Amino acid sequence: MVWLSVETKLRCLDVHFQSTSAYLPAEAMFERLCLFYGFYVLQQEILVLYICGVLKKYDPFPFSLYSSYLVKVKLSNGTTFTAYTYAGELPSCAFGFNNHGVAFTLNSVPPCEEEIVGGAIGRNFVSRDLLEATSIEDALARIHSSEASVGHSYNLIDTRTRRILNVETASRNRISVHEIGEIPFFHANMYLHLQVKQAI
């Protein structure tokens, strides 16, 4: 498992390999991961992910600068995934990808209190489940069957076919799927397709 702590100016990046004694300076390892996976640090607090034409800008809260990680996990069933994660939370709160060619980015879309369903599934459980999806169709099915407490906006990416879907979800099994074509598409922390009352 590789742990990368994303910190201001990349000072003190902590890189540790549990399965090998090989060690690279933190900056060199981070640079290699950036080149391979398409991660870029634009400023002190901004991380950008680029996969198959999808650009994800992530500007975490200041408190998370010293407690954010890229985790690479290999499960007993052979699935491996890499995910951006806050310490103590399920992977992933922002983006991730796996060895099945499935990748995703996400945005929270904060609803009004009346839109929240108590006792339903928390959205971080849904995004963790996506890390094991075997195809973009499987990812979509996992999102659709989740009965989430609140919604998310997901960009699902099939890195093999280069197919991209934007999926907006909301409580009470509301879902909207928008296939991204050649026309540039932008989504932030607001619903574009579903009619949901939001906290602004």
Report on this model:
The structure is a single chain. The protein has one domain: 4-Layer Sandwich (Penicillin V Acylase, Chain A). The chain has helices at 26-37, 123-130, 136-144, and strands at residues 3-5, 39-43, 46-51, 54-58, 68-74, 80-86, 95-98, 102-108, 152-158, 163-170, 174-180. Residues 1-30 and 35-48 have low confidence and may be disordered. The protein has an 8-stranded antiparallel β-sheet with strand order 1-5-6-7-8-9-10-11, covered by helices on one side. The protein is of the alpha+beta class and 200 residues long.
| Annotation, overall tally of beta strands | 11
Provide the low-confidence segments as ranges.
Answer: 1-30, 35-48
- Neighbour order of strands in the largest sheet: 1-5-6-7-8-9-10-11
The CATH superfamily label reads: Penicillin V Acylase, Chain A
Helix content: 10-25%
| Structural class designation | alpha+beta
Main sheet, how many strands, which sense, barrel? 8 strands, antiparallel
Helices and strands, in N-to-C order?
A: EHEEEEEEEHHEEE
* The first-level CATH class name: Alpha Beta
CATH architecture: 4-Layer Sandwich
Based on Cα principal axes, name the global outline: globular
Radius of gyration: 17 Å
Q: Give the domain tally.
A: 1
CA(first)-CA(last) distance: 39 Å
